[in-house]
Amino acid sequence: MTEDAKMPLMLDNSSMNGPMQVDQLDVDDLFGEGVGLSLSNVRTPSKQLCQRVDVLRTRGCCQAVAWSKSGVIASISPDGKSVQVRTPRADPADGSWALGEPTTIDLITATPFNPIVHLAWAPTTAHELAVIDSTGRVAIVAFSGALNRPYPTRRWDDDHFDDLHTVVGCFWLNLASQHKNYHVVHGPAVKETAGYRYESSLVHAFGPWHPNPTRSAFLCVTANGLLRLYWMQNGSNRFEETTMELESVSSSADLITHASLHSDRNQIFIALSTSSKQLRLLRVTISWGIPQPDGKVPPGAQPLNPTMHAKHLAISTWMPGLSGVTPSDPYMTELSHIELLPSQLDNPGQPWAPINILIARTYLPTLNSPYQETQTIIDRWELSHEPPPPLHPAFEQMGSRTNNDNAPADKDPNCLKKLDPIIINNKVLIGMQTIQFGKVICLAFSDGSIEYRDRFTMQETYNENNLDRVMTLHQVGFTFAEESPCVQAALSPTNCSVAQMLEDGRIKWNRLQYSGDDMGDSNQNASYAAVIAALAVAASAATFYHVNCDDILAVARPYAEKKSFTRDWVNEIVKLLKVPVDYSEENPNDNPVRNQSLQLCLSIINHMGFRGEFKPRSFSGKFAQLSLNVRNIIILITFAINTPSNMREKLSPLDEHEVVDALSGCVKWSLDLISYVVDSLYSLLQDPEFMDLLQPSRFNEVSSYIQSQSSPALQLLLCSSSRGFLSSVCRRVTHMEALSNKAIEFYDRRAAIQNATDPSSHTRLPHMLHRAYQKMHHVTSSSITKVQEVERLLGAFTGDVRAAYQSAFANLAAQHLKKEGGNPPEQKHIEAQIKSAQFHAELNMLLAAQPPPPFLPVLRKFFTQDLPAFRAQTDPAKLFFADYSLLEMQDSTRTLEVQRAARRYVDVFRRVMMTPPASLTTPTPSQQRLGLQEGKGDEFSKETVPQWRRCVRCAAVMEDVSSASGLRAGFMFVLSQQRRCSCGGYWVVLPRGGLVS
Questions:
Q1: If you average pLDDT over residues 215-233, what whole number do you get?
Q2: Most C-beta atoms within 10 A of its C-beta, which of 47, 104, 408, 867?
Q3: Residue 343 near residue 412, CB atoms below 8 Å
């Protein structure tokens, strides 16, 4: 053979596939950009995306990033050995939001040969996280005290290593609805001439539920067809396990690859896919083994003995290529997702939408693929009841001769009916979940985009601006910024942000941002009003179902400096949730303290008015901060005094010196607040310009003048809810004063008896509880103001306000008579008008607006008669020179610089000044700023250095005393009331020695 014969032809196909082939990615380098060659536009998927799709095709449970209702983003480390948690938090320096540094959960560790593969959050208030490894072992940890410090509730040490136990589908049981048989869906906001009207609808709530309404149970389907139920026994804090065989697996073709579980009509429905490309639907019922209640044993205390029963409903195949909907369909031979959608009712009076099963298949082109565009196909089936095809009479006769079973046949057997598929070009599906109680389906794609589809029509929704009927922020101009390529995504429970795992393994927090032009500054602008309405719908839904709304605050934070943005937003929330804000007609009680929706409104005002540590707050921010803190102190003292009846035999908080010592700080803070309010009112009394405003011609300037003085004392007095807080804390302080006096008398009497019998006993140190009550007695006895007199002053002011309202609105009946032509009005109608007028007046004062005209005579009487008489009983000089640093209200430049230099912080729980412990070495700037990352120096590892907690929302701090040893039951009970900050935000534990400078 000649040398020429040995050389291949350049046009030969085999040679073109060899090393001499020109790489497609180098075409632009050879010919320049813009050349119309098809090869220049070919971009194959990245290696990371291909690996992710391979995992999705192989394993049903492989979610490596998950977002909890409390705001914790859990993710699996890149090596699969551990779980990391992060949380969005407000930067203490300026209040801006960012994602904190990861904290590794040391309670769970895995090996490279058996890595962690799946995470699933429970809907419980304990925020339980199920962690699953590649062999199906399940560990469960709970986050109840801090977002980055879990404790184990189930360990996987005793679970077996078996590949056949690989989990292919899992599901946490829903919590029982607080409205029994339905959920309330807030929204949409419907635009009208006078503003937005908020509608609401009902969605049926289905079990099964755990018999204890605060707990859930975890269901898992394994590859070999087992259904595992992990449930917590009543009266204990340990998980137990119950199993049942769903499928008999006798060969590899019967192995289950993917499963989806969901509750529907008090049963569990399970959709399964097998290696032989079968699609099966099963129904499982759970019986908890609880006997009939006899009224003697509460349901939550009865022992559980659950059993499960399964029934096969229908079987089909998801074999690709049969329909031939696209040219690439035959190449998509493996599914990546399976999702079961339970039956749903769109609107009352319409038929129920049947159960649907969605299966996603993805086509990823390779270099030599015949089709070079990525594609995702979502196949759909619905559960239908169709009669069987008729049989020939001969077969029926034969059946009657051979079948001795007299049981009636199922006339309408279940079957899976194939529906039209959904074809999505140039996108790779990486995630699928439902929102709004199953009415909307979210599809996450590898390019960072998210699609929303209607559950009933599967058509895209929320993709166009609609200012007339607002349900989400997407409809008013908000979009996810910086859609980065990712391999996994988890939507937040509020649907206002998404956590994405990028191709390099990093976790990115992507929240909604306004993409349009300037939205405006008032409700006169259509875009501004629509944004306010959308934020109100989102925040109301979150608080109604106890979902952390921090990412909603992060979305709204850039607009905090708009003049009326916060006020308009809170006003809409009050309208939507019907938040009670008028307490002017009530006698002194604790109803304002119990109003959790009011806490949400104050928390929003507090955060939007926060500009950073050691920086001046806004006027409304100060008012909200004081209101929230005094409410928190009332709760702590109340729980310490009134132990629940079922716990009194086990604990008595006021018999423990740690509790009394902590309450002493709370009482000291409360007395400082009362003195601060009185001193600020005295300043207004001595201010001629303010007194000149208390006349009809200038009364409309009162609000602006008060805000210019930067002291919220008068607003605390004017607003009935905050005035109720002050009255409540006065009663608590009076009670603690009387209690400390009795304790001192008891210990003095006992000491006298001991000294009489044993003269040497007088040299002994007082008992620790005795010293704690001595401290409490010193705090109450050294108060500058008399609390009882302040309470009477508040009561007189409340009476004047009530009389002013009655006098001002008495003419409503006369106006109604004149309008209706002399017809007597109905008493209910008049009362409703008066209540509405009072409500709007109180809402305006809560939002720091101008007091209504009826308050002019009230304020004039207060500042000319009541307050001067009260001033004669106190020493104004002592009030003026008193130290109010605990309140953090003084915001002069010099005062803030002194506090910054001293690094002084107020403990939210004990209400004492704290300074960060000195470190052996200086933390890095990022550690100082974030306060969430474990350092590597000795200063972070010494056990002697106390740890602090920081609120992720308002940046408040408290010492992490829960980790101390030797704490007694009473103290832990009172401390448990501080599981969240006074503003309602969650805590994170800071590293030892690390804190914001």
A1: 95
A2: 867
A3: no
